[in-house]
Design brief:
- The chain is mostly helical and 208 residues long.
- The chain has 2 domains: 39 residues, no CATH class; 154 residues, Nitrile hydratase alpha /Thiocyanate hydrolase gamma (Nitrile Hydratase, Chain A, Alpha-Beta Complex), CATH 3.90.330.
- It has 12 helices and 4 strands, in the order H-H-H-H-H-H-E-E-H-H-H-H-E-E-H-H.
- Helix 4 packs across helix 5.
- The model has no long low-confidence stretch (mean pLDDT 84).
């Protein structure tokens, strides 16, 4: 029997997923509006801007910084950043000579509530395979050319660790507000493949 386009579609991963969803919905296993609610969470609530706010607070509040480094989950909970993949948040503190970078060698886990969903390159086999062996080279290819005296330390996400990087506060930002500081922090900075620089964003453009 000749396969139709419908048959071919059903044999794809997305086709099988949709078929499974259809059956589960028909049997009442999927609560009403669950898909819409989860989609909204992924697209709106899981946002690297959340992690940026956490970093900015740590840069300006020594007590909060101490809490973040001691119990990242509790610190993020103060902002309401909790839930799936946010149960075991660990903050990794960079120094002028230490650059922490996170990876998930098995899949693509990150601390979704504060980093958002992982970028495509983070999920690639090449990034996961090379980072441990060639950390500085991989960062250079991603646009961050570190000085020779900076050590790259790689942290592998596990079931009980969801990392975020606390970068070094850029020089010349002593009088910046939390909102201005947060505008310097991107998803790449929170993963550790980039460092924030005050020259990247002129004063007064925060929130743009």
């Amino acid at each position: 029997m000749k396969e139709t386009s419908h048959d071919l579609l059903a044999n794809t991963p997305s086709g099988r997923a949709n078929a499974l969803l259809k059956v589960m919905t028909e049997r009442g296993y999927v609560p009403e509006a669950f898909i819409d609610t989860f989609t909204h969470t992924m697209e709106v609530e899981w946002d690297p801007a959340n992690g940026a706010r956490v970093v900015a607070r740590a840069w300006t509040d020594p007590e909060f910084r101490e809490l973040l480094l001691r119990d990242g989950t509790a610190a993020c909970q103060q902002f309401g950043y909790t839930g799936m993949q946010g149960e075991y948040i660990v903050a990794l503190e960079n120094t002028p000579t230490l650059q922490n970078v996170i990876v998930c060698s098995l899949c693509s886990c990150t601390a979704w509530p504060v980093l958002g969903l992982p970028p495509e390159w983070y999920k690639s086999f090449e990034f996961r395979a090379r980072l441990v062996r060639e950390g500085a080279d991989v960062l250079r290819e991603l646009g961050e050319d570190l000085p020779d005296d900076v050590v790259v330390k790689v942290w592998d996400t596990t079931a009980e660790s969801r990392y975020m990087v606390l970068p070094v506060r850029p020089a010349g930002t002593d009088d910046w507000s939390e909102e201005e500081l947060a505008a310097l922090i991107t998803k790449d900075v929170l993963i550790g493949v980039a460092r924030p620089r005050a020259v990247d964003l002129p004063r007064g453009t925060e929130g743009v």
